[in-house]
């Protein structure tokens, strides 16, 4: 453990690939974690969560389902940060897309509503997906949170993942609308295909996809073309990084240099120069190699 008592946070969908890895890292870093599981999870072997180091004292399991938007309340109230990771990923074509979208949008809005009402939640980190930003008829060299996938264009590709792309995009748009309307501090992390080790018992969908060539799953080969991948540990670290940014610590005042600048002084060096110079001297004097 790095340090004790970093605070209380909630991770939705703790049985999942990304969420379980995130929970492991949060516990290692000294957070107390509440995680939500669907009620049917009670019959499952959850030892990959309950046997994590620190879990006995610092991991608390709650039942909640996106089908019941208010069911996340008990897990969220009192937390400072919420990581909303849960979203149906595997076997989603068994449910009509409209039904699925209603569930993910209303479930997510229910979570955000509880966060906004809680008085304790300072930031919500939402696990987005590259699927919400990369698909467009027009070739875009670089995409980020300012670009959206064109769902109609994606449907024309007939990949079979239309429901996932559509529900992720609709859910995130609804989340941004809510956050803006209610002044909620929302940050999204947009992972590409997440691959790497896993602690959950099942083979995660994305790991199966990422290893399609190794596993000989030919139906998945077409999905790999041009697909970027990211290590699950980097995804977890990014979630923790953005949850801490700006919300912890003493907020310092800006030290005014107006008088100096108004009197004709010109600053010559940027922050990059500050670090470059310091690192160069440290190297020259043997403090770092
Ligand atoms: N893995 C990737 O490559 C990747 C890339 C980009 C973004 N993401 C995003 O990362 C998040 C996690 O994905 P993952 O790969 O970890 O998938 P996963 O292993 O399938 O995890 C999905 C989680 O969502 C939960 N869930 C599904 N339906 C639910 C419902 N109705 N109510 C409450 N919880 C529900 C699942 O619970 P059950 O175990 O009960 O089904 C599971 O815990 C998702 O938001 C996904 O869109 C993943």
TrEMBL record:
The keyword NADP applies. Pfam families: Epimerase. PANTHER family: NAD DEPENDENT EPIMERASE/DEHYDRATASE, NAD-DEPENDENT EPIMERASE_DEHYDRATASE DOMAIN-CONTAINING PROTEIN. One of its GO terms (molecular function) is oxidoreductase activity, acting on the CH-OH group of donors, NAD or NADP as acceptor. It comes from Rhamnella rubrinervis. InterPro entries: Epimerase_deHydtase, NAD(P)-bd_dom_sf, NAD(P)_dehydrat-like. The keyword Flavoprotein does not apply. Belongs to the NAD(P)-dependent epimerase/dehydratase family. Dihydroflavonol-4-reductase subfamily. This is NAD-dependent epimerase/dehydratase domain-containing protein. Keywords: NADP, Oxidoreductase. It comes from the Eukaryota. Residues 9-243 form the NAD-dependent epimerase/dehydratase domain.
């Amino acid at each position: 453990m790095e340090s004790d008592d970093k605070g209380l946070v909630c991770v939705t969908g703790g049985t999942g690939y990304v969420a379980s890895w995130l929970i492991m890292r949060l516990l290692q870093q000294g957070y107390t974690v509440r995680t939500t599981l669907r009620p049917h999870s009670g019959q499952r072997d959850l030892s990959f969560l309950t046997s994590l180091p620190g879990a006995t004292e610092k991991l608390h399991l709650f039942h909640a389902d996106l089908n019941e938007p208010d069911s996340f309340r008990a897990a969220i109230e009192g937390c400072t940060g919420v990581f909303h990771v849960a979203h149906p990923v595997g076997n989603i074509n068994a449910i009509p897309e409209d039904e699925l979208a209603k569930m993910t949008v209303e479930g997510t809005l229910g979570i955000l509503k509880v966060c906004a009402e809680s008085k304790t939640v300072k930031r919500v980190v939402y696990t987005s997906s590259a699927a919400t930003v990369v698909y467009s008829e027009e070739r875009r060299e670089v995409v980020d949170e300012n670009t959206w996938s064109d769902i109609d264009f994606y449907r024309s590709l007939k990949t079979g993942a239309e429901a996932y792309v559509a529900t992720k995009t609709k859910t995130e748009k609804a989340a941004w609308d809510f956050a803006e309307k209610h002044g909620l501090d929302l940050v999204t992390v947009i992972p590409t295909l997440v691959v790497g080790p896993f602690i959950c018992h099942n083979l995660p969908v994305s790991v199966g996809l990422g290893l399609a060539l190794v596993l000989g799953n030919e139906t998945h080969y077409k999905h790999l073309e041009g697909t970027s991948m990211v290590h699950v540990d980097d995804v977890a670290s990014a979630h923790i990084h953005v949850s801490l940014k700006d919300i912890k610590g003493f907020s310092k005042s800006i030290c005014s240099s107006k008088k100096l600048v108004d009197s004709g002084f010109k600053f010559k060096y940027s922050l990059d120069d500050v670090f470059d110079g310091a690192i160069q001297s440290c190297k020259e004097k043997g403090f770092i190699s």
